[in-house]
Fold:
Amino acid sequence: MNENQHLGALEAMLFAHAEPVETARLADALRLEKAQTEALLQRLQQRYDEQESGLALLYFAPDRWQMTTRPYYGELVKRILDTRRNAPLSPAALEVLAVIAYNQPVSRSFIEQVRGVDSSGTVAKLLEKGLIEEAGRLDLPGKPVAFQVTDTFLRVFGLGSLADLPPLHGEVGEDTPEPDPDPDAEAEQLEWK
Structure:
């Protein structure tokens, strides 16, 4: 196979698989080295971006790829599929997702402790939507079920990994400017002269 045939084969496999798939699995199917397959995947991703294609190739850390449609065309895709509109997430659901994403794996009691209200119904709905999943049991009294976010959560919110989450209030990251050590300097700038 030449490079174009390999790219076509990757497109076909990713399209048919429809879920994130590991680079090693794709490499095995193509009978190529993992590094060669990763280079082809990056080339395919670049091609879609350069052509402003309706398709996009998403990379999920640590080592999975998925073909999707671009969010820009979401409404058109919904129309052609004639699917019923998904209800937007409630503020309670967004709160629960935030608690889980930033602290995972967490128990339901941890979520309720942070929010201060019963969250069992919200957790059940998020499980049903596939945005969270059970992550085993915690080593705590009663062995409570732990929850974590899913690849679907990452896809819906346009994240490659949890490292792409915005920093929490008060966290100083590499991209966050340090506060000005001289509070009078800012006051001088704001004074009318």
Remarks:
- The chain is about 50% helix and 15% strand.
- The domain at 3-73 is CATH 1.10.10.10 (Arc Repressor Mutant, subunit A).
- The longest helix spans residues 34-50.
